[in-house]
Design a protein that fits this description.
Blueprint (H helix, E strand, L loop, with lengths): L1 H61 L4 H19 L8 H9 L4 H6 L2 H16 L7 H18 L6 H16 L2 H12 L8 H19 L15 H30 L6 H6 L1 H18 L9 H8 L8 H14 L7 H15 L8 H17 L2 H12 L5 H18 L4 H6 L31
Helix pairs in contact: 1-5, 1-6, 1-7, 1-9, 2-5, 2-12, 3-6, 3-7, 5-6, 6-7, 7-8, 7-9, 8-9, 8-17, 10-14, 10-15, 10-16, 10-18, 12-14, 13-15, 14-15, 15-16, 16-17, 16-18, 17-18
GO molecular function, one term: chloride channel activity
Keywords: Chloride, Chloride channel, Ion channel, Ion transport, Membrane, Transmembrane, Transmembrane helix, Transport
Subcellular location: Membrane
């Protein structure tokens, strides 16, 4: 009898361990399935975005002034659909992921990362590209990636934690840019900045799987092509890196400040713009169309083609950077969904191009690259992410140190103009009460009703 009792006790004590192992395997399978799906969706999204932008370019080539009608009309339609059907899909997508990670099982997160919001984000962003909007797909892929990861975990019956959302968003960046390391850096600097927790395992796993899926289907391409850089003399580095960082950071900070004035929860122009949202969308669409027509199409869409051309040594117009800046601000104020990653890199390339006459011609590509770094960091305030993204998207590693110098200075200069971190300030608009993000982007206070965080597994 005593022997039988001991066997029962042993069996009972093993049940929690078995259940824990089962739950852990379900978590791993959910992460694997979610990351694979994110990689596939990112590829389809990229194909759809490129197709939409190419179709718009064909229309504009056939009828040069057609965007003056087509772009404003599409802006109004997309802004109306967004506000009435899927308000969770407005804007970039990164603020939504940050806001949802504050309370991953709350009602706010369920709305921001629902299938409806994710699908709407995809179609509305593609629609914006068909209208020539100055938007990117990287930010939207963050929200879509987080939504996919959350829905897959719920399907597998696994508790959704902040780490799940962070992993999905980081995997989205990795798959969109084909840059796995940048996905990890982005998770650390932007998505997980508010938490004292270790998300490394789940993030790296999701990022690598999504990145490998993207590379396996699309090939091991480099986003902006391989940049040939000749070694910069130390005297040139000591001048161009601080200059690109300072001027780029100031310009990026100005963009963030204007962006928040139009779209931030406390933006001084927001009330005016939102009073008649369809009129705002119409006017902003007309501005984007006029700038695009005057620039002969250089400012349409992501800005990928002119940016790549500048990096590869083609002569570019000096007005490209300012024109793209105006087009991106107008697009963001219109209420049309879309990201700012790629447009920010394009504006930075234009800024770098403005500096090239002051340096030897053989170093033009590197000067433009550093201009991209300074401006991009001034906007997003994530220097490590910027260094890794630019290294991976250009296939170059011999300017890592100048990139770091530029990004650190750009981060400081951007903060002089805009004290708030852009994505974290925008995330406040998707939060309520105690979930609000501090305007300075400092560590967040954990909500009282938030589920406890498992620091070992999340």
């Amino acid at each position: 009898m005593r022997l039988f009792s001991r066997k029962l006790e042993k069996l009972a004590s093993s049940i929690p361990t078995d259940l824990q192992e089962l739950q852990e395997w379900r978590r791993r399978l959910a992460t694997l399935a979610g990351a694979l799906l994110i990689g596939l969706v990112a590829i389809v999204f990229a194909w759809a975005g490129d197709f939409a932008q190419n179709q718009f370019n064909k229309i504009q080539s056939a009828e040069p002034y057609s965007p003056l009608i087509l772009t404003p009309i599409l802006f109004v339609i997309i802004a109306a659909v967004t506000s009435s059907v899927a308000p969770e899909a407005r804007g970039s997508g990164i603020p939504q992921a940050i806001a949802a990670s504050r309370d991953p099982e709350g009602l706010t997160a369920k709305g921001l990362l629902s299938l409806r919001a994710g699908i709407a984000k995809l179609f509305l962003t593609v629609g914006a590209m068909f209208g020539g909007a100055s938007v990117g797909r990287e930010g939207p892929t963050v929200q879509v990636g987080a939504a996919i990861m959350v829905q897959i975990h719920r399907l597998f019956g696994v508790r959704v934690t902040p780490g799940v959302i962070i992993a999905g968003g980081a995997a989205g960046v990795a798959a969109a840019f084909n840059t796995p390391l940048a996905g990890i850096a982005f998770a650390i600097e932007e998505l997980a900045v508010a938490y004292e927790q270790r998300v490394a395992i789940i993030v790296m796993g999701a990022v690598m799987i999504a990145g490998l899926t993207s590379q396996g289907i699309s090939g091991d391409y480099v986003y902006f092509g391989h940049l040939s850089t000749s070694g910069l003399p130390l005297t040139v580095i000591l001048v161009v890196a601080p200059l690109a960082g300072f001027l780029g950071g100031l310009a990026g900070g100005l963009f963030s400040r204007l962006f928040l004035a139009c779209n931030g929860s406390q933006g001084k122009w927001r009330a005016v713009l939102k009073k008649r949202p369809l009129v705002t969308a119409l006017v902003c669409g007309l501005i984007v169309a006029i700038v695009g027509v005057v620039s002969h199409g250089a400012t349409w869409g992501t800005g990928y083609e002119p940016t790549r051309a500048l990096l590869e040594g083609s002569d570019g117009d000096f007005w490209f950077g300012p024109a793209k800046f105006i087009s991106t601000i107008a697009t963001s104020a219109s209420g049309v969904p879309g990201g700012i990653f790629a447009p920010a890199l394009a504006v930075g390339a234009g800024l770098g191009n403005l500096l090239t006459p002051f340096f030897p011609a053989e170093h033009a590509g590197t000067v433009i690259l550093l201009g991209m770094a300074g401006y991009f960091v001034g906007v997003v305030r994530a220097p490590l992410t910027a260094v890794i993204i630019l290294s991976e998207t250009t296939g170059t590693t011999d300017v890592i140190l100048p990139l770091f110098v530029t990004c650190l200075i750009g981060d400081w200069a951007g903060g002089l103009i805009c004290k708030q971190r852009l994505y974290h300030a925008l995330a406040a608009d998707f939060m309520t009460g105690g979930e609000k993000v501090a305007a300075s982007g400092k560590r967040l206070k954990q909500p009282e009703n938030a589920a406890p965080v498992d620091t070992e597994k999340d």
